[in-house]
Design brief:
It is built from five helices and 17 strands. By secondary structure, the protein is α+β, with helices and mostly antiparallel strands. It has three domains: 91 residues, no CATH class; 103 residues, Elongation Factor Tu (Ef-tu), domain 3 (Beta Barrel); 122 residues, RNA polymerase II/Efflux pump adaptor protein, barrel-sandwich hybrid domain (OB fold (Dihydrolipoamide Acetyltransferase, E2P), Beta Barrel). Strands 1-12-16-14-13-17 form a six-stranded antiparallel barrel. α1 packs parallel to α3, α2 runs antiparallel to α3 and α4 runs antiparallel to α5. It is elongated and about 135 Å long.
Length: 388
């Protein structure tokens, strides 16, 4: 070999072999990352000193090593991202398990508390009053309703005979009144005017009759007998018209028909009433203007006996009964009065005429002395009917 030949040609071959070595190393580095990192470090240390002396091979080596170095870094970045996601998901799963565990514990505690509460034995409350019981060995039970004592019927329902607005209410509920006591008045201005007109017509008819009678008395030939009789008939008719007007005027003041107690007043001043009574906006029916009862020293109990028990009803000579006021321990002996001999549908207790019922009952009436018993007409009571 000639010593004068330049050495750079040999040096140029060395970088190529090194570059080839570096090209082969990254392929093995893709399989094992730790070895790739060491090879990369060695490659960099080897290339740096040769780069200073020989720039051209260095440029080629760098150009060839850049894409592979990037390829080496990409798997590392993906691995780091996967690890971060795994670490973020792990805390969420742990918190969810804790919540489910806490809810399960709360549910178990709630079930135990509920089982304890519902499993407690509660003592029964004592009854407010002693339950109703049969005072006889064998008896019929019936519902009863308190009524005022009347020879027939139940209460006294008062309806006006004329129509018009009420101008005065002269009594109050619970007041004891005598027969003829004014209860209320109805506006009567029109009827009063008609009465005054009838009075005027009667006066005019009498004047005509008096004149013709005087003329006839002076000279019978001055006026015919028929004209005098016609004038007399006109007076009689005018008097009858005035009498009818006065009678009709009396209807505008409604009075108590008998002695008794005012139970209810179903209209107020200004309410329009008619012969049908007072209109109730709640029930949409007409009610009596005033409901009265007889004197309340004695009161009646109307009992309703089921039709299937009628055959077991004792005869009137051997019947006895006892009433117990609902909600109390008060018991009152009853005296038999009469049987209403008509079996009717059981609608009296509900006061509903359209009630669909198949049960029919026989009314039996008893009486008792009221004294200080806390009972009122219309009150429900329990009645036991036995045999003496």
């Amino acid at each position: 070999m000639n010593p004068d030949e330049p050495k750079p040609e040999v040096g140029a071959a060395e970088p190529k072999s090194e570059a080839k070595a570096t090209e082969l190393k990254p392929e093995a580095e893709a399989e094992r990352k730790p070895e790739a990192k060491e090879a990369e470090t060695k490659t960099e240390t080897k290339t740096e000193p040769k780069t200073e002396v020989k720039p051209e091979p260095k440029t080629e080596a760098k150009a060839g090593s850049k894409p592979k170095a990037e390829a080496e870094h990409k798997p590392e970045v993906k691995t780091d991202e996967t690890k971060t996601e795994t670490k973020a998901a792990a805390p969420k799963t742990t918190i969810g398990n804790k919540i489910i565990f806490a809810i399960a514990i709360i549910g178990i505690l709630a079930g135990l508390v509920a089982a304890y509460i519902f499993g407690m034995e509660r003592k029964a409350q004592p009854p407010v009053f002693k339950p109703v019981s049969n005072p006889f060995e064998s008896a019929i039970y019936a519902n009863g309703m308190i009524e005022s004592e009347q020879p027939n019927g139940a209460n006294i329902n008062i309806f006006p005979e004329v129509s018009g607005p009420i101008t005065q209410v002269l009594v109050h509920e619970g007041q004891q009144v005598s027969a003829g006591t004014p209860l209320f008045t109805i506006e009567d201005s029109v009827q009063r005017a008609n009465t005054e007109l009838a009075e005027a017509n009667l006066k005019a008819a009498r004047d005509q009759y008096d004149k013709r009678r005087a003329s006839y008395d002076i000279d019978p030939k001055s006026i015919s007998k028929d004209v005098l009789d016609t004038a007399e008939d006109a007076v009689i008719q005018a008097a009858a018209t005035l009498k009818a007007a006065n009678a009709l005027l009396q209807y505008y003041s409604v009075k108590a028909p008998v002695d008794g107690v005012v139970l209810s007043i179903n209209a107020a001043v200004g309410s329009y009433v008619s012969s049908q009574g007072a209109y109730d906006t709640y029930t949409e029916l007409f009610d009596p203007l005033v409901v009265m009862s007889g004197p309340q020293d004695y009161m009646d109990v109307r009992c309703y006996i089921d039709e299937i028990l009628v055959s077991r009803l004792p005869s009137k000579w051997h019947i006895q009964a006892q009433m117990q006021i609902m909600g109390t321990d008060i018991k009152v002996p009853l005296e038999f009065v009469r049987v209403q001999p008509y079996v009717s549908p059981k609608i009296e207790l509900s006061n509903q005429k359209q009630e669909q019922v198949d049960l029919r009952v026989l009314p039996v009436i008893f009486r008792f002395e009221k004294k200080d018993a806390p009972v009122y007409p219309g009150q429900m009571v329990d009645v036991f009917i036995g045999q003496k």
